[in-house]
Amino acid sequence: MTESDQHLKNRFLELAHRAFSRECYVYSEFLTTAEQDILCGMAFDKSSAPFALKGGYDAAERRLACFGDESLCGYSEDPPIVCIRISPVSEKFADELTHRDFLGSLMGLGFRRAVLGDMILNENSAYLFCLNSVSGYIAEQLAKVRHTAVRCAVAQAPDIAAAPPEPIPINIASERLDAMIAAVYKLSRDESQQLISQGKVFVDSRLTESLSFSPKAGSVVSVRGFGRFLYEGVERGTRKGRLKASVRVF
Questions:
Q1: H/E segment holding residue 52
Q2: pTM to 2 decimals?
Q3: Dihedral, CA atoms, 202, 207, 209, 215, nearest 10 degrees?
């Protein structure tokens, strides 16, 4: 375990103890999948509040650790996450903007990545999930992305966040993780196995390094550098002994 991993564990334990002792909700900043894996692998003591991971919508990748629940605190509370729509002032004169363009402009304002969650692109606009504490500053200060003037406003998450992508059929030899990754991202079996061995694959926020691991239907598989997909399970077998399965790729 690295020194930074131990520091992160200590931080999670401190948040869990604080929520338990004060009987109130306590939140981390946005966590990467690797940081979520560390949290989910921890064994907490009896003086720790329970936690849940929330990112503003069900399929979020970057999520807060929310310590506390209604049975402990006596009330329910939404996590301090705000969705901001960042859109061109004039679509006619706007550049074709990418995730990197929006994120680069935000980082140029001095924001740490940990205060920014997922970003969903839709019709040349970005829907950014961020901490409530920085939402006002973003709305006031972010005026340009690349050469495009933009406006920012608090908004509801787009329908694309509420509804998962359309299902895509895949043809796999088995429900092994390496077979699924190869089929989804059009890789060779060796290439998918290398990704797993290099610690780049997470299943439901947990680092998974077993080549033969079989995700359950409903699992979200994150592959660093490629994206994420929701595995929906096997639909039927084929005459050649293979399996027809279904995934939703984010």
A1: strand 51-54
A2: 0.79
A3: -50
